[in-house]
Amino acid sequence: MFFRPKYPIEALLRPPVEFQSALAAFSIAIIMASMPGMIMMSEQMAYVGAGILVFAGLVRFNQGWQIYRYQKMLVRLPYYGMRPRKVPVSNRTLFLGLGFRWSQKHTQRLFDALEPENEKYITPSRSYRWARELEKKLDRLKVASFLIAVLSSNSRLNPFRPLPPVGGNPAIHAVGMLEGEHPVDMPLGERVGHTIVLGTTRVGKTRLAEILITQDIRRGDVVAVFDPKGDADLMMRCQIEAQRAGRPFYMFHLGFPEISARYNGIGNFSKPTEPAGRISDALPSEGNSSAFKEFAWRFANIIVQADVALGNRPSYHSVRKYVNNIEPLLMQYGKMILNKTAPEGWEKVYLQILDNLDPKTLPFSLKDRNLEAVALLKYCENTGFYDAVLDGLLGAFKYDRSYFDKIVSSLAPLLEKLTTGRAAELIAPDYGDVTDSRPIFDWLSAIRQKAVVYVGLDALSDSTVASAVGASMFADLTSVSGYLYKNGIAHGLPEMQTGGRKISIHADEFNELVGDQFIPMINKAGGSGYQVTAYTQTESDIEARIGSKSKANQIKGNFNNLIMLRVKEPTTAEILTNQLPKVRVNEIMAVTGANDSSDVDSGIDFTSKNEDRTSKREVDMIDVSTIMSLPKGQAFALIEGGQLFKIRMPMPEKEDDPNIKTEFKDIYADMVAKYTTGEGLMSRNNDWLSVARAA
């Protein structure tokens, strides 16, 4: 707003009296220009004077209009929407939305707007409330349907049009509209510091994820999207943007195995101890369960190491098979390692032991066991032969079967869940089945292809399996980051283009996925090009999932960028407010007084005064209640080393690219039917994916 006078205290919540002076200036200008003789001026001087008054009137009218417009936006913000293909993409910055940098003056304006005497400026008018009450009264009358349609129309010509169904307090964003909004961007260099997005359910986290993912795909980053609940529109957005950018797309979804890609959660690793950790991470670790978890890890580790030594790729099926019956693995590995490292003639000694075995003299724990395996055990005991893996297998073999079943009681049910039903085909794929056309992917190959990977974990149906698969994928990604850090992207592929690659990982409902395996990823994987954006609802969700407050703080401390939507937990809101400085705001206090005169000869009986006093007080730049009152689709962003921005995201508009065709239209319809995720402005029933509906 130009020519806006500077005063110590802004007076924005008042009648726009500038219109009166503008009207007076225009009226006098008309008189001067049309009847200069009446005011005894020459025509030339009258025209010059009229021009000066018109200019002054325009300045005052503009000042009044800005005041009027500001007050209207305290109740209703201007519409902001965007088509998918219009999302801005840059090789230097990440677009977050429209907004402004928050400072002391915005805190002052919000403080003023929330004063009781200014309530009329932040609440709808009486006529608006009357229209809404009338709609309620006539709602069940069919004869009044036309009137209700008129009153509820969203047309700008409707003086009673309803407010957008976003809730919250629009004044929080309107306090920055006086100077205007601008695109808020985060430098891409900040993203390797990782970003956390906090917001309660149905306030726009997934909508923000769509905007960020769209940019990452078009920019050329490798994109991995983890979606525990299986959001249909998010999956389709990934597929459409991958197609638009000409990128490979893998969809892994536990809820729809018939069209999903396949992934072996424990088949790819850098160290043979990693698969056992991925399996045991899904087991409970509270209280006495920790001891059973450690034994489960040890037993799974022995099985995996033996299986790998035999030249096999481990899978959940193979681990379950050998947990139920370890004897075949013991015999295969034992004979293999003895042939390699035992003295010559070991077979003769082994056969002699086998011939001399008497089942009646065996210990109780070895009765009903395979005699060949018992002979192998006796051979190692008699000759002192030692191999670490074989010794572990023999140790498990020696346990009494009933005792052994108890100590692996937590492992067996988990493996049964992971290997039962059609979902088992996805996480324990048969590499030799040439009739199965569903692709098998791993993270290293996806990164080399610059692919887009969508992972739907169907946590609403089975949270245990979803958690186990998600944790194993995170652990696998961490392992791949170590490989990339040491060897680079083109190791072993001389014809491949070298150079680093950005791997953008988006973890929706982050609290469903986080575990111990996630800590090294955000601690150390930035050097491998990993940039994690995590979306969750509360601080407590992370702590409850990880089971340790110190580890939860360690995870939160590694997110350098914070985007805070509306939250309902005060401690979560304090993650932002505690990082902001205090500011000083002006308070106006009305003072009225009257005094009697004690001088009977003065002629003055009493004196009175009315005055406004200003004082300053220290307040939080943003308080908890402000964050808890944010409308849907709005957020505070603390980025670039502590700079605070207020942003709002664009509403989704219709997809209008005729070249986009989706191959997942049927599965999209099924997912929409299965996963209903809310109503209103930020609901998933939006127009972004109309191509999928029409395809």
TrEMBL record:
Stored SUPFAM superfamilies: P-loop containing nucleoside triphosphate hydrolases
Keywords, sorted A to Z: Membrane, Transmembrane, Transmembrane helix
UniProt keyword Transmembrane helix, yes or no: yes
Alphabetical list of Pfam families matching this protein: TraG-D_C
Gene3D superfamilies listed in its UniProt record: P-loop containing nucleotide triphosphate hydrolases
Positions of transmembrane segments: 21-39, 45-62
InterPro entries documented for this protein: Conj_coupling_TraG/TraD_PFGI-1, Conjugative_coupling_TraG/TraD, P-loop_NTPase, T4SS_component, TraG-D_C
Occurrences of domain TraD/TraG TraM recognition site (ranges): 507-632
Classification via NCBIfam families: conj_TOL_TraD, SXT_TraD
Name under which the protein is recorded: Conjugative coupling factor TraD, PFGI-1 class
Record organism: Thiosulfatimonas sediminis
Lineage, top ranks: Bacteria, Pseudomonadati, Pseudomonadota, Gammaproteobacteria, Thiotrichales
